[in-house]
């Protein structure tokens, strides 16, 4: 896995969205490293600079391998979209290795999905670009879908942020498909078992189903705190990094560094 690390201290592991790569977290990684944490991010299989053969794999197993390679027994996990889904599944499988979770517009394995008529229109445009094999058009549609927001005007977010999104997603779209990912167990029906302190964020311009999911998570997860980010869509870490950094650092500051080092404890496997 292609990764990057900054700082020293207790580890914070960043898990990127399915239309991005590790670069979506550069601002957050710098902020937490300067605040005394060890920031780690990597490109999952099929993204960024990571190259992988088309073989059987599981993103949760890959995450465990990344931690084990660095002798990290427990960490705070920050995940957006599909990265959040990996974090939740990891927390269910290895609860003793999770100090806390920050989930942004998160996916949840087994969660239901629905779309408004307006949102369905952009999904149809995405499907059409995919069926025609027009990856450049698909990238632009997905930028509208996920960066601008499905109910917002195309091009709402521009400049360097849009260029970064198109580059990250373009690299993923250009890779050969990985067809042998193992199906993970349903997590939607087991959210009450995720007991780690959790900060939930969602953008007001995201898909309505993701906003509804955010509300369900806030009511179901026993130690969850929820924040609605006004005026941003699915990738707030690059659209409004200062806001995300502030909320993330407030959450991390709630952890008492004077407690026993969790890395001295035996994790639950």
UniProtKB/TrEMBL annotation:
It comes from the Bacteria. It comes from Devosia chinhatensis. This is AB hydrolase-1 domain-containing protein. Residues 11-241 form the AB hydrolase-1 domain. One of its GO terms (molecular function) is catalytic activity.
């Amino acid at each position: 896995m292609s990764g990057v690390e900054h700082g020293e201290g207790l580890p914070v592991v960043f898990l990127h969205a399915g239309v991005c790569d590790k670069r979506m977290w550069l601002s957050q990684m710098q902020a937490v490293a300067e605040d005394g944490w060890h920031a780690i991010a990597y490109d999952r299989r099929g993204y960024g600079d990571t190259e992988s053969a088309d073989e059987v794999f599981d993103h949760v197993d890959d995450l465990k391998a990344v931690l084990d390679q660095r002798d990290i027994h427990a960490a705070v996990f920050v995940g957006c979209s599909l990265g959040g889904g990996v974090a939740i599944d990891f927390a269910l499988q290895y609860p003793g290795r999770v100090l806390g979770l920050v989930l942004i517009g998160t996916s949840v394995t087994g969660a239901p999905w629905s779309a408004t008529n307006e949102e369905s229109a952009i999904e149809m445009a995405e499907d059409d670009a995919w069926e025609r094999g027009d990856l450049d058009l698909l990238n632009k549609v997905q930028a509208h879908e996920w960066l601008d927001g499905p109910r917002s005007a195309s091009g709402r977010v521009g400049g360097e942020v849009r260029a970064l999104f198109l580059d990250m997603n373009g690299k993923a779209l250009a890779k050969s498909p990985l067809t042998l990912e193992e199906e993970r167990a349903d997590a939607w029906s087991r959210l009450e078992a995720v007991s780690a302190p959790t900060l939930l964020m969602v953008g007001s311009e995201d898909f309505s189903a993701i906003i509804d999911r955010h509300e369900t998570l806030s009511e179901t997860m026993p130690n969850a705190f929820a924040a609605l980010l006004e005026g941003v869509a699915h990738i707030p870490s690059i659209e409004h990094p200062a806001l995300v950094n502030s909320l993330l650092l407030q959450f991390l500051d709630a952890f008492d560094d004077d407690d026993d080092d969790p890395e001295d404890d035996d994790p639950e496997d």
